[in-house]
Amino acid sequence: MYYINSLDRLINQLTRLPGIGERSARRLAFYILKQPQQEAARLVDAIKTVKERVKRCSICNNFSEEDPCPICRDEKRNRSVICVVEEPQDVFLFERIREYQGLYHVLGGAISPLKGINPESLNINSLLKRVENGGVKEVILATDPDTEGEATAIYLFKLLQSLRVKVSRLAHGLPAGGDLEFADEITLTHALRGRKEMEEEWEI
Amino acid sequence: MWLKNIQILNFRNFSRLNLEFSPSINIFVGGNSQGKTNLIEAIYCLGRGISFRTFEDDRLIKWEKDSFYLGGEGERKGNFLKYELSLAKNSRKLRRVNSHKVPIKNINYWLWMVAFSIQDVKIVQGGPFYRRNFLDEITSFLYPNFSYIKFSFSKVLNQRNVLLRKLREKREYPAHQMLGWNSQFLQLGSEIVYLRLKVLRKLASCLSNIYPRLRGSTCSIRLVYNSSFLDEEDNDLSIRKIKEKFYQKIKLVKDKEVENGMSLIGPHRDDFQIIVNKINQRVFGSQGDQRTTAIALKLAEVELLREREGDIPIILLDDVPSDLDFKRIKLLLDLVKGKGQVFIATQNTGEFSKDFLEKSRIFHIREGEVD
Q1: Which of B148, B158, B177 is opposite residue A114, by nearest beta carbon?
Q2: Of A133, B9, B91, B165, which residue is the least packed, with the fewest Cβ within 10 Å?
C-alpha cells in the first residue's frame, strides 16, 4: 500500500482541527507538501509565534499579546459596563460591529454537567471581583441562547444580584433585514414574547 | 389530500415499480412477506420522509443496492405537487418537493398520513412511553413549537440528572448550582404539560364521538392525565399555575432527588389513563377492547389532523383483518365520508363485500412485483 510515514503524521495532526475531516486534511497535507520550503516554514513559524506570544489577559481572560489587553487598558472605553461572553471569538464578533464601547469578560465556556464543566471551571470569580471592586454599573450576559448558555446566565444573575449591579441579557428574536416568513417557529415565539412597545415618533 | 401515483426504485424488496392509485380505496393483496407492508411503508416514507417501522434508514435500501428513490404526485388543497425522497448508503435522505430541496422536518411539506398497524395496541397495552409518544406526536403536529420545547427539555433533563448524580456522591444540595437548570426545567416542563393537557382534551372530545360508533353502543370515555405533580382535577390550568404547582412539588422532593441521583418528577414521567365505562383499559380491558381502543385513538388522530389541515389525511391500514374486522373498516370509511384516500394491505379479500371491492382498485403483490 502507498504510504509515507511523515505525510501520514501531518494528515493525522490536521484531522484534529475543528471542521477538518480526513478528506480536507489530505488535501491540505498534499498542498503543503507541494509548496516551496519557505512557504511551509512561514506556516510553522506563524503557529509557533502565535502560541508563544498570545496569552490570556489577567483581567478579562481574552486572548492578547499584552497584559492587560488593549481593550482593558483603553481609557476611552466605557468602564462601567461589562459584557460577559463564553469564548474569545465572541469578543471578536462584538468588536466587529463597533457599537459596543464597554469592557468584556470571557468565561471560557458555559456550564454543562454533561461535559463536566461546572461553575468552578469557568472564569467566574474574577468577574465577581471586578464587580466588587466598584465602578461597574451594568453586566450584560451574552452567553449563547441554548440550554447551557441560559443556565450559565441564570447562575450568574443569582450571584450578581447581591452585588447591586444592573444585569441584562441579550435579546433574542427576529434577525434584522429578514422576512417573517423565514423565521422558525421558536424564534418567532421568542420575538412575540419579547415584543417592545413602540415609542412616540418625532413629527416634523 | 391524496397520492396519485408512485415510482419506486430499489426500496425494500422492490426493484422498479410504477403504480397509479385511486383517490378513494386501494387494496394491496398478497401472502406473507411478498411486500404488502413494504408498499405501505413506501407510501408513508414518500409522504412524511420517515418510516413508521424503523429508524435505520439504510434498511430501506434494497439488499445489495446503493440507494433507493421514491417519487409521486400528491394533491394538497387542490394543487398537485411532485414529492420525492431518495437515500444513498451512508448519506442522508434527500427530500424534494417540485424539485426543490426541503427539510424532512418541515411539516408544511408533508403529505399527511396516519398508518394503522398491529403495533398500535401498544399505545393501550404498553408502558407509559408508548402513550407519551402517541400524545407527543399529535401535540407536535398541532403545536409546531412543541418539538423544540421537548428537545430543549430533554437536554436540560440530561444535564440536571448528571448534576444530581454528582450531588449524590457528595451528598449535598448547593441550590445555586442547580438554579440555572431548575428554572429551565420548570419552565419547559410546564409548557410541555400545558400543551399535552390541551391536546388530551381535544383527543377526549373526538373519542367520545368515535368510540360509541366503533362499539355500536353508548359508552363513556375519559382520558386522565397522570402527572407527577398535578392533581387529577387540574386539567385546565395556565402555564403559570402549572409551573407554580411543579415548583411546590419539586421543593418537596429535592432531597429525594439527590438521594436517587435523578429527576423524579416532571413530564418525562407522566402518563395518561384511558377509561372506558369506568374501566381502565390498560389494566382491565380485554384484548378485543384494547384493540378497539387503539383503533379509536388513531381515528381520533385522523380527526384532529383533519381539523388542523382542513383535509383528511391519507389513511394506511397495514395487514388489517388481524386487527380490524370489515365492520370497523366500513365505519372508518364512513368517518372519512368517502372523501379520503385509503390504502389497505391484506392477505385475502374474503372479508370485504362485493360492492366494496368493486369500488376499490386492487393490486396483487407477489415477490416484489405487482399486477
Answers
A1: B158
A2: A133
